[in-house]
Write a structure and sequence with these properties.
Blueprint: H1 29-45, H2 49-65, H3 69-83, H4 88-108, H5 112-129, H6 132-148, H7 152-169, H8 172-188, H9 192-209, H10 212-228, H11 232-249, H12 252-268, H13 272-289, H14 292-308, H15 312-329, H16 332-348, H17 352-369, H18 373-391, H19 395-422, H20 424-429, H21 431-475, H22 479-485, E1 489-494, E2 502-509, E3 512-520, H23 524-544, H24 550-565, E4 576-584, E5 589-595, E6 599-603, E7 606-610, E8 629-632, E9 638-642, E10 650-651, E11 656-657, H25 660-669, H26 675-690, E12 699-705
Antiparallel strand pairs: 1-12, 2-3, 3-4, 4-5, 5-8, 6-7, 6-9, 9-12, 10-11
Helix pairs in contact: 1-2, 2-3, 2-4, 3-4, 4-5, 5-6, 6-7, 6-8, 7-8, 7-18, 8-9, 8-10, 9-10, 10-11, 10-12, 11-12, 12-13, 13-14, 14-15, 14-16, 15-16, 16-17, 21-23, 23-24
């Protein structure tokens, strides 16, 4: 039911592993083979069609449980053909059972459209028979399909419906499965405490049932929650226990899951060779099973591991295979990861056009998956489920009230029809009013048309700005790239509008990492246009002109910005304020220069502020060279680069500016916390201070601990 790969949030999991709720808990493979032999023998002696139908369906399920999908599909289709010839309930139930089994086979192979079609046909049959237990089972299977496709609102809707029926019918195993699926949705939303709560419930229920397959699955699920919280020792412990049980019961899907999960831990710990070893084992298992979803995810993982080893040809080969397969089976989560991997690989190879093309595809898919309504609908559906449970005892009373209301409504209709008969004469007299009404409606139509035209123009403008945002994002280094060079770091980046005048910049050259936070003139679209000019100038200063001293980099950046704006016939005075660090970890040396924006750093339990040159990167009278300041590093030194948006924000009880001093005090008070916790403190304090007031400027704060 769970996947192996990290949330890159805002984090993503590479792919999902599902517990198929129709599958039984296999004590061992030999037991399934014994059932196959038994059902095959009974099938040869069956003289009654209903008995033959039952044994065909059981034989299909037994073959499925040993991953013999072709045989399972063969017997399920034979059962469906026979069921269609039987009259009455026997035929209806046989058809529903057969479609349910065929749906499971399609689901496990990653053919989701066919799986959903079969499940809906099965539901129709069970509804006709009022078979609530089987309905609950198939509703859970439908939820599992949507879960694999990352369609979370639909997945939750079907899981909650399945859980409701499972509780009403006492279906314990299905209750356990649904708790796990709901836990998975919470994990995708980043609510790890809630995800852990639901998965531990599922694990406890499977232990009570003595179901080793379920125990293995949810040991792995709990491991993934710990993995996403970066508690790697606990994650590896749970994965190891899950793998042992999967090997004991001969569950190849489970073995593949845990090899893949273990590989992600090694990858996060920068042990690419061990990660590759695990991913290749997982790939071999899923290829044997024909599981397209997991094959695509394994290929993507292997490609990323090769990328981290800088083996770009192999990385492109595996990521390309994953991208093609994910498109074939319609799994957006894996397709998104492959586009992100393409972007990183081409960027590393120095091919910006291809990198930008794949980055835009990545953003498009991410927008689809991360619609803001997902979280809202998730919470609403859970609350609706809890409400319906509490109201179940009052259903009978409501039905009586509904019946009375219906009768009263019928009486009102009779009265209404009588009144209408009396009004026929009045209608003749009112014809002139109707004519006036037509004129009014025509006017309303014209007004509505004008409103729609204006709304269309507004939408076109917003769409254009949103596309500009994607282009601007392409110049910003991905947060995972920053984390690669500075694992202990955070980025608080809050544009005032869709696009921003603030931007952050990073390059790694000659074992030196350059990183900056910059504030361009203005915000919104004008600010974003200036940010593109300034970011390009920084790139040219370090790459084209080969400058390494921070002061000289800012001098050259100013020259290049002025050169760009000098081409305009008007007097352009736009530019930027910036705080620029150059960090050489090997020599334990830091260079810094600033234009109007200072640097704060904490080292040896002392806070220090370096003052910037009081001039911008832009057109001024009598410009002076920018100063380069040197800092000798000690372990644990923490640096803060920022723009003025945070301290300039109006808010609080008196609607005043936040200011620099309270910001400095807050950083000092929380400097002992992890960088992620510092990020949360800053973000929460900003929101609480701003309250309902408008954000006045773009906000950028970069925190780096060395």
């Amino acid at each position: 039911m769970y996947s192996m790969k990290k949330h890159k949030l805002t984090t993503t999991l590479k792919y999902i592993f599902l517990v198929l709720v129709l599958s039984i808990s296999p004590p061992a493979l030999w037991a399934q083979k014994t059932k196959i032999d038994s059902f095959s023998a009974l099938l040869k002696t069956d003289n009654v069609d209903t008995s033959k139908l039952k044994h065909l369906n059981r034989l299909a399920s037994a073959y499925f449980n040993v991953a013999s999908y072709d045989s399972a599909s063969k017997y399920a289709n034979l059962a469906l053909q026979l069921a269609n010839t039987l009259p009455g309930k026997e035929g209806t139930h046989g058809i529903a059972d057969s479609y349910g089994t065929i749906g499971i086979i399609y689901n496990d192979r990653g053919d989701f459209a066919k799986a959903l079609d079969c499940y809906q046909k099965a539901i129709k049959g069970y509804e006709e028979l009022n078979d609530r237990k089987d309905m609950a089972r198939v509703l859970g299977n439908i939820g599992a399909v949507y879960l694999r496709q990352s369609i979370y609102p639909k997945a939750l809707d079907y899981c909650l419906r399945s859980l409701d029926l499972a509780e009403k019918t006492g279906y314990k195993q299905l209750q356990a499965n649904m708790h796990g699926d709901i836990g998975l949705i919470y994990m995708y939303e980043g609510d790890y405490p809630k995800a852990l709560e639901y998965n531990l419930k599922a694990l406890a229920m499977y232990k009570d049932l003595g179901n080793k397959n379920g125990i293995a699955t949810y040991l792995g699920a709990v491991g993934i929650v710990y993995y996403n919280q970066k508690d790697y020792p606990k994650a590896l412990d749970f994965y190891s226990n899950a793998l042992k049980i999967s090997e004991e019961i001969g569950d190849k899907n489970g073995m593949g899951r845990q090899y893949g999960n273990t590989g992600t831990v090694y990858e996060d710990q920068h042990d690419a060779s061990k990660a590759l070893e695990c991913y290749l084992k997982a790939l071999q298992i899923f290829q044997e099973l024909g599981n397209k979803k997991e094959i695509a995810a394994c290929l993507s993982n292997i490609g990323e591991a090769y990328y981290k080893e800088k083996n770009y040809p192999e990385a492109l080969r595996y990521v390309g295979q994953a991208n093609q397969l994910s498109k074939e089976i319609g799994t957006l989560d894996v397709e998104k990861e492959t586009e992100d991997n393409f972007h990183k690989i081409y960027k590393a190879m120095g091919k910006p056009d291809q990198a930008l093309d794949h980055y835009e595809k990545f953003i498009t898919i991410q927008d689809t998956l991360n619609e803001t309504e997902n979280r809202k609908q998730t919470i609403q559906k859970e609350m609706r489920f809890e409400f319906e449970k509490k109201e179940a005892a009052n259903n009978a009373e409501r039905e009586k009230k509904d019946a009375l209301a219906k009768e009263e409504k019928q009486q009102q209709k009779i009265i209404l029809f009588s009144v209408i008969g009396g009004l026929v004469l009045v209608i003749v007299f009112s014809s002139f009013l109707y004519n006036r009404f037509r004129i009014t409606q025509r006017q309303k139509t014209i007004i509505q048309s004008q409103k729609e035209e204006a709304e269309e123009h507004r939408k076109e403008i917003i769409d254009s700005i949103t596309y500009a945002k994607r282009i601007q994002q392409a110049i910003l280094p991905p947060i995972e790239e920053i984390k690669r060079y500075f694992p202990e770091s955070f980025l608080l980046y809050k544009p005032k509008d869709i696009v921003a005048g603030d931007f952050y910049w990073m390059e790694h050259l000659d074992n030196i990492t350059y990183i900056a936070a910059a504030d361009c003139t203005g915000h919104g679209v004008p600010g974003a246009m200036v940010s593109v000019v300034c970011s390009n100038a920084l790139n040219r200063a370090v790459k084209e002109f080969g400058l390494r001293d921070t002061g000289k980099i800012l001098d050259k950046t100013r020259d290049l910005v002025l050169e760009t704006f000098s081409k305009s016939s008007s007097d352009v005075k736009d530019g930027m304020d910036i705080s620029l660090l150059a960090i050489d970890k090997e020599k334990r040396k830091v260079l810094w220069s600033g234009a109007n924006n200072p640097l704060w750093y904490i080292q040896n339990a002392a806070i220090t502020e370096l003052t910037a040159n009081k001039e911008p990167i832009g057109k001024i009278d009598n410009p002076k060279p920018f100063t380069t300041q040197t800092i000798e590093l000690t372990k644990g030194a923490t640096f803060y680069l920022m723009t003025d948006g945070y301290p300039d924000q109006f808010g609080g009880p008196k609607g005043k500016k936040f200011k620099y001093k309270p910001l400095l005090e807050m950083l000092v008070a929380n400097c002992g916390r992890s960088m992620e916790e510092q990020h949360r403190v800053l973000a929460t304090a900003f929101q609480n201070w701003k309250g309902d007031l408008e954000q006045v400027d773009d906000v950028t704060i970069l925190g780096i601990r060395l």
